[in-house]
C-alpha cells in the first residue's frame, strides 16, 4: 500500500508509491552523446577557457598550460558577474538588484572520459578541497551571502558538456530553498534542543535499513522521505554547519564516501544522469548548533510532472529501504 512520508526538516510530504515499485533495471537510462568532437575542458585546450582562478599542478607547470590535475575557471557564460555594485532598488511593488555574484567551473580531471565515480580517491579529494578553497575565498566578498556548489552529470541532468565538471555560484542573497531548510532545522532545534540532522544520523545508524555505507567520519543514506528513486545523502557524523569549516583531515574520508557512493550508483543504475548539491550554512550562520552540511545526490530516473508542480508533493516509485539495499549489495 502507498505511504505518505513527512520530511522532518522541511515538513514536506512524499508519496512512496509501493504499488509502482520499480527495480534498478526498470529505469531507462538516457542516450549517451556521440563520442568525439572538440572539448574545451580537455588538457591542451586551456586557451579555450577563461584564465584559471586556481589549479592543482605537478612539477611547477605555469598557469593556463597543460600539466594540471584540476582547474577552476570562470564560467564563459556566467549567470552572475563579479564586477559592479548591487544597487538594490524598488520599482513599485517589485524589488531588483544588479546580477552581482560569481560563476565558476571546477574541471575535475584533465581526462575526458573519467568521472567522479571512476577517478582515484586523491582526485576526488582534490575536487572537495577546491570547493573549500573557493568557498573560503568568496566568503570574503561582503556583497555575497551564499555559495552554491552543484554538479550536473549527464544530458538529462542538465550537463552541457560531457567532460566531468561541477559548478560554483556565489549569490548576493540566500536562496529560498536553502533558507527554508535552515529555518526548518532551526525550528526543530528550538523545539527539541538538538540538531535534526544529528538525530537523523543516530537513527539511521541504529536502524540500518536506509544506511548504504559508512566510514569513521561519514555515512551515506537513502533519506526516509526520499523525493526521487535512489536519492542519496552524505553527511558528516560530527556536527559541522559549514562545509569549509570542517577539520582538514576529514576531507579524505568525505571523498572516500562520495567516491564509493557514486561508484555504487553507477553500478546499480548503469551510470545514471544525476545532480548533486552541496548544502551548507549561509555566510551569516557559519557556526551554529541547528544546521548540518551535507550532500544530496539525485539520480534523474523519473520526471517531475503536473502533480508535483501542483502540490509540492513528490511521487517516488522505489522505497528508500529497497534503494539502500540495492546500493549496499553493489560492489
Explain this structure to me?
This protein has 331 residues and is an alpha+beta fold. It has one domain (3-27, 40-84, 95-329): 2-Layer Sandwich (HIT family, subunit A), CATH 3.30.428. The protein has helices spanning 121-138, 176-192, 196-207, 251-269, 306-311, 320-329, and strands spanning 3-6, 13-16, 54-57, 68-74, 89-91, 94-96, 102-107, 146-153, 165-171, 211-214, 218-221, 232-236, 274-279, 294-299, 314-316. Strand 5 (89-91) and strand 6 form a beta hairpin. The mean pLDDT is 92.
Find the structural class using helix and strand composition. Answer: alpha+beta
Briefly note the CATH topology name: HIT family, subunit A
Mean pLDDT score: 92
Order the strands across the largest sheet as they lie in space: 3-4-7-9-8-13-14-12-11-10
CATH architecture: 2-Layer Sandwich
Amino acid at each position: 500500500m502507498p505511504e505518505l512520508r513527512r520530511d522532518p526538516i522541511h515538513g514536506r510530504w512524499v508519496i512512496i508509491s509501493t504499488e509502482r515499485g520499480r527495480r534498478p533495471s526498470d529505469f531507462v537510462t538516457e542516450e549517451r552523446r556521440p563520442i568525439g568532437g572538440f572539448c574545451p575542458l580537455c588538457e591542451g585546450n586551456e586557451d579555450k577557457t577563461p584564465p584559471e582562478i586556481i589549479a592543482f599542478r605537478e612539477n611547477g607547470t605555469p598557469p593556463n598550460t597543460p600539466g594540471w590535475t584540476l582547474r577552476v575557471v570562470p564560467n564563459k557564460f556566467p549567470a552572475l558577474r563579479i564586477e559592479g555594485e548591487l544597487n538594490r532598488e524598488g520599482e513599485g511593488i517589485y524589488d531588483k538588484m544588479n546580477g552581482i555574484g560569481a560563476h565558476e567551473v571546477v574541471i575535475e580531471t584533465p581526462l575526458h572520459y573519467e568521472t567522479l565515480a571512476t577517478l582515484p580517491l586523491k582526485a576526488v579529494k582534490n575536487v572537495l578541497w577546491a570547493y573549500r578553497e573557493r568557498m573560503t575565498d568568496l566568503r570574503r566578498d561582503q556583497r555575497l551571502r551564499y555559495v552554491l556548489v552543484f554538479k550536473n552529470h549527464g544530458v538529462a541532468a542538465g550537463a552541457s558538456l560531457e567532460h566531468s565538471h561541477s559548478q560554483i555560484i556565489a549569490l548576493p542573497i540566500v536562496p529560498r530553498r536553502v533558507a527554508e531548510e535552515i529555518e526548518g532545522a532551526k525550528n526543530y532545534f528550538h523545539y527539541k534542543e538538538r540538531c535534526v540532522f544529528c538525530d537523523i544520523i543516530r537513527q539511521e545508524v541504529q536502524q540500518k535499513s536506509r544506511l548504504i555505507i559508512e566510514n569513521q567520519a561519514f555515512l551515506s543514506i537513502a533519506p526516509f522521505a526520499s523525493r526521487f528513486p535512489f536519492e542519496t545523502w552524505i553527511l558528516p557524523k560530527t556536527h559541522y554547519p559549514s562545509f569549509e569549516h570542517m577539520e582538514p583531515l576529514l576531507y579524505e574520508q568525505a571523498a572516500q564516501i562520495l567516491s564509493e557512493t557514486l561508484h555504487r550508483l553507477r553500478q546499480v543504475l548503469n551510470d545514471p544522469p544525476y545532480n548533486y548539491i552541496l548544502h551548507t550554512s549561509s555566510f551569516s550562520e557559519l557556526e551554529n548548533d541547528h544546521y548540518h552540511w551535507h550532500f544530496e545526490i539525485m539520480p534523474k530516473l523519473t520526471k517531475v510532472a503536473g502533480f508535483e508542480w501542483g502540490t509540492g508533493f513528490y511521487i517516488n516509485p522505489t522505497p528508500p529501504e529497497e534503494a539502500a539495499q540495492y546500493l549496499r549489495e553493489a560492489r
